[in-house]
Amino acid sequence: MQKKVGIIGAMEIELNQLKSILQDKKETETAGMTFFEGTVSGCPVVLVRSGIGKVNAALCAQLLALKFGVTHVINTGIAGAMAHGLKVLDFVVSSDALYHDMDATGFGYKPTQIPQMECSDFRADPALIEAARNAFGRTGDSASHKMLLGRVASGDQFISDRALKEKIRSICDPACVEMEGAAIAHACYLNKIPFVIIRCMSDMADDGEETSYTFNEQTAAALSATLVIKMLDTVK
Ligand code: ADE
To answer: What PANTHER family does the entry give (predicted)?
Structure first.
């Protein structure tokens, strides 16, 4: 079956590289989002900026599934580093994704557990993970930066506080935090679409990282998108 890869970035800077090399472009507006269909490296894709946060991200992934019939989803962008040893401009490829801010513990559920759902921790697709690792090995970045396979924790919160970072670590021990990945993973799980999240670290999710974030967001976003472009060589 011909693959069609939905590629979601929350912000424009997370999609710029991909958009600049998109061929045979066709634009569709839906739900306040612009979907760009075409090909990148010969692979059929739909590029879209979801907007920030879990609801925007889930709506976007659902539209990719229902309206555009994508067979795979890749979420590209930036994140705050959580795993020990992970630094700014290192990469995380998702093993799984969950919501660090899902809390129904008052009803006896575990932190992050979604009430009345059989799955709260959405597993990324092994073939897409492999494509990401393979692509990373083919970039110049692998000499100076590392790529970690690990958990992505999402929430409607920008994490810039040491105590909060430690609290999230104690709840679910993620490799990185961001604001969309798990919602995309959740929609993909419900629609039975394989997904992966690729994130390049813009900050340490720590005290004072607004400065680090501002300084690194463009570079990190571009590095992540460049990696996705390399992935598409092997995904198609
Ligand atoms: N995206 C990039 N850095 C982040 C952080 N520290 N918290 C949430 N989302 C992010």
So the answer is: 5'-METHYLTHIOADENOSINE/S-ADENOSYLHOMOCYSTEINE NUCLEOSIDASE (PTHR46832), 5'-METHYLTHIOADENOSINE_S-ADENOSYLHOMOCYSTEINE NUCLEOSIDASE (PTHR46832:SF1)
